[in-house]
Write a structure and sequence with these properties.
Elements lengths: L1 H7 L2 H34 L3 H14 L1 H4 L16 H10 L21 H14 L18 H11 L1 H4 L6 E2 L5 E2 L7 H10 L14 H16 L13 H27 L1
Antiparallel strand pairs: 1-2
Length: 264
């Protein structure tokens, strides 16, 4: 019995079991990754030509910061697994390629055409499965609920972007940009990918229908009038109070000067 017990506890047995577990884990991961990638590519209708063209564009314009295979460098993060949506947002809004290093990528005219942006997106999507570009159904504001979108936006977004979506200041020179006149596609992609200082709102946090409702609310805000008069950018009580204080103080000083001159 003692010899049998010692044989069962032989160190090689533990090593063999560990090796088998690693092989099985690696195999399952490879199969799952391949399946997810195939699903992502089929949903986005990416072709081998798109991926090849995108790889050439990537090597010429993005590899310096993000690495030749998108693995990332000291100057830029890894793009493996960020998905097509992240590329479509960053490149489509002109934030990438960055014009210069700074606390935050600036919006500017896009450097690439729509076709080139799709090609870059397809190549990055091929590096690892991630959020895809939203379909037309997800962006159809005619099916959205602006009232529910307002509730979702106020609970999750207003603390940075302002209740009216006008944007606002953050710490260390960063800021939340205005959401007015931003395309439906880019708003949806921002929620899914969490660019820069923004958190990621995946489908478990905000459902696709709620994302569409948020977009519907923001588009309604764009067309809203200002029945109370000058909107002052809809930036809230701070800007409104500063405006009133400045104008009011100016009127008081002017009236005082006028009274003094009359007395003289």
């Amino acid at each position: 019995m003692k010899a049998l017990s010692q044989k069962r506890r032989h160190p090689l047995a533990a090593i063999i079991l560990l090796a088998v577990a690693l092989v099985l884990t690696g195999g399952l991961y490879a199969v799952a990754s391949a399946t997810n990638q195939a699903k992502a590519d089929s949903e986005q209708n990416y072709t081998a030509d798109d991926i090849a063209a995108g790889q050439k564009l990537f090597q010429s314009n993005c590899a310096t910061c993000h690495g030749t295979s998108g693995e990332g460098t000291d100057n830029g993060p890894s793009l493996v697994g960020v998905g097509a949506a992240a590329v479509d947002f960053q490149v489509g809004t002109g934030r990438m390629p960055m014009q210069m290093q700074g606390t935050q990528a600036q919006i500017k005219p896009g450097q690439f055409t729509d076709d080139q942006t799709k090609q870059l997106s397809s190549y990055v999507a091929s590096l690892g499965a991630g959020p895809g570009v939203p379909d037309k159904e997800s962006l159809d504001t005619s099916k959205g609920d602006a009232a529910n979108g307002a509730k979702v936006f106020l609970a999750n977004c207003a603390m940075c972007h302002n209740a009216a979506g006008s944007g606002g200041a953050l710490t260390r020179g960063k800021f939340a940009p205005t959401l007015m006149n931003v395309s439906e596609e880019h708003i949806y992609e921002a929620m899914e990918t969490g660019p820069q200082n923004m958190p990621v709102f995946n489908d478990a946090n905000i459902t696709p229908d709620e994302k569409r409702d948020v977009i519907t609310y923001l588009k309604a805000q764009e067309s809203n009038s200002s029945p109370g008069g000058l909107a002052l950018g809809s930036l809230g009580p701070v800007s409104e109070g500063l405006f009133i204080w400045t104008i009011g103080l100016g009127l008081v000083i002017g009236f005082t000067v006028w009274l003094t001159s009359r007395s003289a």
